[in-house]
Specification:
The protein is α+β, with helices and mostly antiparallel strands. It is built from five helices and five strands. The protein is globular and about 50 Å long. The relative contact order is 0.15.
Length: about 130
């Protein structure tokens, strides 16, 4: 198996070629976004523990956040388990609709990285507005 450093070099080289061919935008949307979302969902997100937070419960849910990544993504600890809380959408009245999903890890640093990777994916609410 190749060393991690060699894999990173190959990925960087491949991205350079995609850029030269004018295919980076298409790769970003079709491969990076879709594959990474599926990978994160399969490996780290417990879809059975997904919860749309009602507006009246939002402030209470946000009190469990132990670290914020911007204003719309947080790492929460609920019942000794790590969760990602995030804004999923904003309604016409300007209300932010939050959700919570349990992460399949008991390591805080892994949970942080999963959230940061999720946050940087194209099509996420926070990336559409900014």
């Amino acid at each position: 198996m190749q060393e991690t450093d060699e894999k990173v070099k190959q990925i960087e080289e491949g991205l350079s070629y995609l850029t030269d061919l004018g295919l980076l935008d298409e790769f970003y949307e079709e491969v990076w976004r879709k594959s990474t979302i599926k990978f994160l969902d399969d490996k780290f997100k417990d879809e059975s523990e997904y919860y749309d937070i009602p507006l009246e419960e939002t402030e209470e849910a946000k009190q469990h956040v132990i670290e914020w990544f911007g204003v719309d993504y947080g790492l929460a600890k609920v019942n000794c388990e790590y969760c990602m809380v995030s804004v999923g959408s904003i309604d016409e009245g300007g209300n932010k609709w939050w959700y919570k999903i349990k992460l399949k890890t008991d390591d805080q640093e892994t949970a942080r990285k999963v959230i940061l990777l999720d946050k940087c994916l194209p099509g996420k609410y926070c990336n559409i507005l900014h």
